[in-house]
């Protein structure tokens, strides 16, 4: 830290992203990426677009917006795109949280929620999970704060039902509820259908996981036109050109080629089901996952050892040191072959 860093950020603890090793060095199951590449059509079309890069990109993402709005059956003024969904979450904090209204989120959840709270100088309310690691909707009734919930939650993978989310929305009519659907495509109900009914709902999402675009950075929020206008105010006050031209095109192609991505999602879900069966056969305790990762622990192995033993076998998973979850590892779901390799390795590890 230099002596010039603003005093208000000297104690800030930034987000720690999962390790990104050299390609091919590990079976990489630590950051919940999609094991399948973008659709075959994408490469040539994006390459063609490179010759337009001397021109600024479209700040309104018009072509992407048209295709995406039609896909979700919403109006074009009900969506905003961002540089990954981390950025749209930051815009939500900027627009809808301050020291007066505050922010509340589950104690065990996506690590960025508390980093944004610290960055924007808001003392967060962290709401504990139940003993079984599920979110208790009752704990969010009448909170009088902006609420941020990942559904399915990370790193647990467990989801709330739409009815449970609705009760949270109804009991907080004067506060914004942000539902972060980064993993919703892998098995939970989307809250997008509720945006017309509740004027306090913002649904965020990302192309990083279900649309194989983690490295291209495309996120979004879907909400009513007034809240989208508020978020646009943040975007146009910070970086109107936040979604580059290649990413806009790749995002549009991914929606047009939806069948390819649905097939990939189905394959991930099938690999998850088979993997969980093998895990549980070995005595692992695995939380019920609606996402493209599983959160699992074994009674005879601590999480750190499990992480290290897999790492020794060139398999990279995620371990968290927080005492409440340090017994667990979060393992992203790859292809069926990837997960067979992990399960075989775990059998080896447990036999020693
Ligand atoms: C991965 C993730 C995001 C953000 O992903 P981006 O790559 O920034 O779009 C947001 N929320 C949760 C819960 C995530 O796991």
Outline the secondary-structure elements.
Blueprint (H helix, E strand, L loop, with lengths): L26 E2 L13 H8 L12 H11 L6 E4 L1 H13 L6 E4 L5 H8 L5 E3 L18 E5 L11 H10 L5 E4 L20 E6 L12 E4 L2 H12 L8 H12 L1 H24 L3 E2 L6 E5 L5 H10 L2 E2 L12 E4 L3 H16 L1
Parallel strand pairs: 1-11, 3-4, 3-5, 5-6, 6-7
Antiparallel strand pairs: 2-8, 7-8, 9-10, 10-12
Helix pairs in contact: 1-7, 2-7, 3-4, 3-6, 7-8, 8-10
Pyridoxal-5'-phosphate binds next to helix 3.
Task: Looking at this protein, list some descriptive labels.
3-stranded antiparallel β-sheet, single chain, alpha/beta, 7-stranded mixed β-sheet
Question: What does this protein look like?
Answer:
- There is one protein chain.
- The protein has helices at 42-49, 62-72, 84-96, 112-119, 162-171, 225-236, 245-256, 258-281, 303-312, 336-351; strands at residues 27-28, 79-82, 103-106, 125-127, 146-150, 177-180, 201-206, 219-222, 285-286, 293-297, 315-316, 329-332.
- The model has no long low-confidence stretch (mean pLDDT 97).
- The protein is built from ten helices and twelve strands.
- The N and C termini lie far apart (45 Å).
- β5 (146-150), α5 (162-171) and β6 (177-180) form a beta-alpha-beta unit.
- The longest helix is centred in the C-terminal third of the chain and has 24 residues, at 258-281.
- With 352 residues, it is of the alpha/beta class.
- The protein has a seven-stranded mixed sheet with strand order 2-8-7-6-5-3-4, covered by helices on one side. Strands 9-10-12 form a three-stranded antiparallel sheet. Strands 1-11 form a two-stranded parallel sheet.
- Bound molecules: pyridoxal-5'-phosphate.
- The site of pyridoxal-5'-phosphate has 12 residues, from α3.
